[in-house]
Design a protein that fits this description.
By secondary structure, the protein is mostly beta strands. It folds into 3 domains: 129 residues, Sandwich (Immunoglobulin-like); 90 residues, Sandwich (Immunoglobulin-like); 62 residues, Dockerin domain (Type 1 dockerin domain, Orthogonal Bundle). 13% of the residues lie in helices and 34% in strands. The protein contains 5 helices and 22 strands. Strands 14, 16, 17, 19, 20, 21 and 22 form a 7-stranded mixed β-sheet that branches. It starts with a helix and ends with a helix.
Length: 350
Amino acid sequence: MSQNKFRLLFTLVIFTGIIGSCLTPFNFVYAAINTNINATVRITICGNNIKETGEDCDGTDLAGKNCLDFGFTGGTLQCLPSCDFDTSNCTTGGGGGGGGGVPSLSPTAVRLSGKAYPLSKVSVLKDGQLAITTIAGPDANFNVSIEGLSAGNYMFAVYGEDDAGRRSSLFTFPIYITPGVTTNISGIFLPPTIDVDKTQVKKGDNINIFGKSTPDSDISIVVQSDQEYSGKIKSDANGIYLYKFDTTPLDFGDHYTKSKAALNGDLTSYSKVVSFAVGTKTVLKTSKITCPKADLNGDCRVNLVDFSVAAYWYKRPLSASFKSLETERLNGDGKVDLVDFSIMAYYWTG
């Protein structure tokens, strides 16, 4: 079994039944989305016999297609529960169509797709717990599915992580999952990552504001002072942006900056906020490596080795040395339980 499959199985086993639904019921998924998301997403339901965006077909709605459109001479075109075409009953030559089989049960699932950063890690949280991770393509597009869900209300969140380890702010939304259908959530546009090159900048000097977004997107930079200053720049083909901000108009003291991206009419919410100070001298930001909180073996990664270490101490009295590590790296209650494993799942690096 691969590490990714083991990790997903392990995580699902750990969290099954722990997180209950405590959300207010929604009449329908559209109502939940429209009141909670700043950026635009598109919702479609696979299983309602209506072909929608992102689907080839849906139930009896074959979008006007038949077997001839796929190079066959006859037969019956069908639609799979995943809303993809099924040509198994199409025929060529004079043969008759295949016999009807037992229809597959439609899965209860959610499929998420959108834009992050080229080759970036994209993580999906379900009710605050890590559900699955994927890697965006070179074009920054990602697509991931979570199956085996029970019907009900969920809170999903998506975030991206660029190659420097900078995380985006969370893209969060509540949704009601309908039994026996696949809910498609497309058009997710993750906010940019952001950082600065100085913790303090001499008044009048430039401070570099940079990060990653979708390639060739329009980046809006905001610097907050007594008044708000803004600028625009375009990300390059790798999604990288760099804005040189002249601090001359800023007062001495603390300030912060944030960014958002726009592409083809779509707009992200704002990034995380990064702070810096304006003073009489410049202090460069050190690029020290910060290990994840849940790293237990000191290799600056959280993976199966760390899970194995924690599993050994699961429901056992902790040694003095590991108790100190548990206090620093896990939840600090002097024992290893499911709460600690949830922390490790959140900080998972693989």
